[in-house]
Each structure stands twice: as structure tokens, then as C-alpha cells.
Design brief:
This protein is mainly α and 252 residues long. The protein is 77% helix and 0% strand. Belongs to the ABC-2 integral membrane protein family.
Length: 252
């Protein structure tokens, strides 16, 4: 655990040393909320679309942070830095867990910014602090799951282009075959079936029921909250398992 924290500290310190990366991390969520939210607001007449879309923007941002984390991991592998980590007297799993923890930390920071900006722009947030806590747990689980998939993809290839192609194949259905941007009930049957098989749907629905005013979020109660937590936890474990398997295979 201590080694995991050391790796987390190293990666976070590296981020803080690059102001352009901090600026990107802070400004990207602002652009998503302001440009995408305002542009799409007119699609849902009679509902507060800002409240509805905030969880989807959080999911989009989490995926972006995970992809960036996977790129960092791939660059370190290709430049030989990961080999030096392996030679160090630390548990090898801590190398991976430190990276996952770093990505998840960035995801949570960006999510808080999105909620703050959303609140300023009219989103109806839940006044219950336990709802906020539940929302953060869901976001962390999604961040862990997708960062695990990104790290697995970055471990399986030695090509930057190949990595982005692999992650693109995962990213598109995870984001757009879900209820992130449109109500589940409005989707055609085949898309609804696909959305219900997608973990993003459960994170987004869970956020609408915990951190936001569910009365303003269309279809928020369509899936029981306990199922949202169970699927999110399963996705986190699956992502970690995929990353660990790829990491172990590379070490043989």
C-alpha cells in the first residue's frame, strides 16, 4: 500500500509540474459543460437538461482521463521506464495500482469541477451529503474500471496508434450506447438492450439518483440504485482484472 501511495505521489507531482496539463485537466470539463450543455439544452423541452446531462459529461471526462493515463503508461513502457520500476524492490502490483489511483484522483477532481459548473449553470443538485458521497463512489468505480481497461490496452500493444484504435473500439459503445446523452426510454429497442448491457448506463443512472435531483433527471429511477452500485463495482473489478492479467502476461 505504501508503494502504491509513492507511485501515486510521483505521478501527481509530475502532473503538478506541468501547468499545461493542469490547465487541460481543469478547462476540459468546463468546455464540456458550457459548450455541450448549452448546445444540447434545447433537445429536452420541459426538463432541466443541464441536470440530466451532467452525469454523462462526468462519464465522458472519466473516459478521457483514463485514455490519457493509458497513454502515459504506454510511453513509459516504450521508453523503458516500466522496466526500471520492475527492478525496484516493490510489489509489482503497486506499479499498476499507483497508476490506477492517479487516474481515479484526476477523474474525481474533474467530476467535482463539472458538478460545480453545472450548479452555476442551473443543474439541480441533491442536498443530501450522503447522496454526494454515493455519487463519488460511483464515479470512482467507473474511473477505476475504465482506467483498468485503458492500462490493459496500453500493455497489450507497442504501438501508440494501435493503443488508440483499441481504446476507440471500447470508448464509442461505452459512451454512446448508453443513457448518457438521451433518456433510456427514448432509445429504439436494440439500443436499449445494448445500453442495459453497458456499465456506463448504471453509473449515469446512479449519479442521477444520488448526486442530482432525480425528479429533474428523466428516467433516473428506471433502474434500482442497488443495481447501479453492484454493476459499477463489478465493472471496477473487471477493469482491474483485465489490467492485472495483461501486466502479468507481459512479465512472463
Amino acid at each position: 500500500m505504501n508503494a502504491t501511495f509513492i507511485f501515486w505521489q510521483k505521478y501527481m507531482h509530475k502532473t503538478l509540474k506541468h501547468p499545461e496539463e493542469i490547465a487541460g485537466m481543469l478547462i476540459q470539463p468546463l468546455l464540456w459543460v458550457v459548450l455541450f450543455g448549452v448546445g444540447m439544452r434545447g433537445m429536452m423541452k420541459g426538463d432541466n437538461y443541464m441536470t440530466f446531462m451532467i452525469p454523462g459529461i462526468v462519464a465522458l471526462t472519466a473516459v478521457g482521463a483514463a485514455i490519457a493515463g493509458g497513454s502515459t503508461w504506454l510511453n513509459e513502457r516504450l521508453s523503458g521506464i516500466v522496466k526500471k520500476y520492475r527492478a525496484a524492490p516493490v510489489p509489482r502490483v503497486s506499479i499498476l495500482s499507483g497508476h490506477v489511483l492517479t487516474i481515479t484522483t484526476k477523474v474525481l477532481i474533474q467530476a467535482l469541477i463539472i458538478f460545480l459548473v453545472g450548479l452555476i449553470m442551473g443543474a439541480e443538485l441533491n442536498g443530501n451529503p450522503f447522496g454526494w458521497l454515493g455519487g463519488l463512489i460511483l464515479i470512482a468505480a467507473f474511473g477505476i474500471g475504465f482506467s483498468g481497461l485503458a492500462l490493459a490496452a496500453a500493455t497489450m500493444t507497442d504501438s501508440s496508434e494501435g493503443y488508440h484504435m483499441l481504446i476507440f473500439l471500447l470508448q464509442m459503445p461505452l459512451l454512446f450506447l448508453s443513457n448518457s446523452l438521451y433518456p433510456l426510454a427514448s432509445l429504439p429497442l436494440w439500443m436499449r438492450i445494448g445500453a442495459l448491457a453497458n456499465p456506463t448506463t448504471y453509473v449515469v443512472t446512479g449519479l442521477r439518483q444520488t448526486a442530482l435531483d432525480s425528479a429533474q433527471s428523466a428516467g433516473a429511477a428506471a433502474i434500482p440504485l442497488w443495481i447501479c452500485f453492484a454493476v459499477s463495482a463489478g465493472f471496477a473489478l473487471a477493469g482491474l482484472a483485465a489490467a492485472a492479467k495483461a501486466f502479468k502476461k507481459e512479465n512472463r
